[in-house]
Amino acid sequence: MTDPISDMLTRIRNAQAVSHETVSIPFSKFKLNLAKILEKEGLVEGVLIQGRKIKKIIEIKLKYKNKKPVINKLKRISKPGQRIYLNKNMIRPIKQGYGLAVISTPEGLITDKEARKRGLGGEVICEVW
Fold this sequence. Notes:
By secondary structure, the chain is α+β, with helices and mostly antiparallel strands. It has two domains: 4-69, Ribosomal Protein S8, Chain: A, domain 1 (2-Layer Sandwich); 74-128, Dna Ligase, domain 1, CATH 3.30.1490. The protein is built from three helices and ten strands. A hairpin with a 2-residue loop joins strand 4 and strand 5. Strands 6, 7, 8, 9 and 10 form a five-stranded antiparallel sheet that branches. It has a three-stranded antiparallel sheet with strand order 1-3-2, with helices on one face.
């Protein structure tokens, strides 16, 4: 697998398309931080780590409202073949503030709102709305 982040986003999209309650993703610290951001923003209900050592997985409990997924779209922006970086002045609200972008900065993964507030730029990982 060349892009584990894209795989994670695809697993979430696919699970929501068939109304699964949870989705399992192979563990990495980066994916865990991304899942925690989605949880903090209210886009997923919960994030659990299960297993030990090599068999660790991230269990994400998906969130639905009136039997429709809360996440309408998950889009990978920066890809292994084409990285997308934005400086602090170029970060704009996603969908007039209704969406969010996850940005990898020197201070870790943060949302676009947080990056604008702190005056940080970085690699745009994905957009969610």
